[in-house]
Amino acid sequence: NDAAAKTFDIPIASDLLDEVDETVALALSNATGNATIVAPSAATLTITDDDATPTVSIGDVSLVEGNSGTTAFVFPVTLSAASGQTVTVGYSTANGSATTPADYAAASGTLTFVAGDASESVTVDVAGESIVEVDETFVVNLAGPTNATLADPQGTGYGIAGHDRGLVAAPDLDRAIGLDPGRGVQRLHRRMSQEG
User: Are 154 and 100 in contact (CB under 8 A)?
Assistant: First the structure.
């Protein structure tokens, strides 16, 4: 004749994944002792997620661009923590001192991190050049994330030129023009100064 309300416990497993709220369907059944199950005989348990939304960042890349062909600049894109949800983020390149299409191939699209994945990448092809030039830069911007927020949304590509291209060592210059060591460089500097 115990008519008092009863309760029961359901253990909930904890994790560190950002995920959607989850539900468990509960239902009463198999009543004994001449008891009858009446409405409401079912309920829904909602497990509210309490994990932080991950952030997404892109790193910088610094490579020698080469004298010919193309060099792949691979930008790492990472989440602060793996997520229990699919995370997406858009990316696109933008000119710095380097310009497209002469210096690099423009790239844009969307990266997808499947649940549990925390690392992806963006690849940009940079053109090698045989002319003497200064180091050049371009950027890759992240935008429009889903199930994540932006932490570091811009990566810079540093294209390092081959600084020794087109240069002549001082002893070679001296011998080439028949002067004593050091005189060729002095004459070259003097001529450059006069022409400048």
Answer: no
Label residue 5 by pLDDT band (50, 70, 90): confident
Q: What is the pLDDT of residues 158-193, one digit of tens each?
A: 987 754 444 444 444 444 445 454 444 444 444 444
C-beta of residue 59 within 8 angstroms of C-beta of residue 76: yes
Whether the model clears a pTM of 0.90, i.e. scores above it, the answer is no
- For the cut 90, the answer to whether the pLDDT of residue 35 exceeds it is no
User: Which pair of tokens denotes residue 124?
Assistant: 């940009």
CA distance linking residue 138 with residue 99, whole number of Å: 7
12 pLDDT band, cuts 50/70/90, is confident
d(CA 58, CA 145): 13
Q: What is the DSSP letter of 51?
A: P
Which of 144, 78, 138, 145 is closest to 103 using CA atoms?
138
- Please, which residues have CB within 8 angstroms of residue 101's CB and are 6 or more apart in sequence? none
Q: Which residues contact 20 (CB under 8 A, 6 or more apart)?
A: 49, 84, 85
Separation of alpha carbons 43 and 28, rounded Å: 9
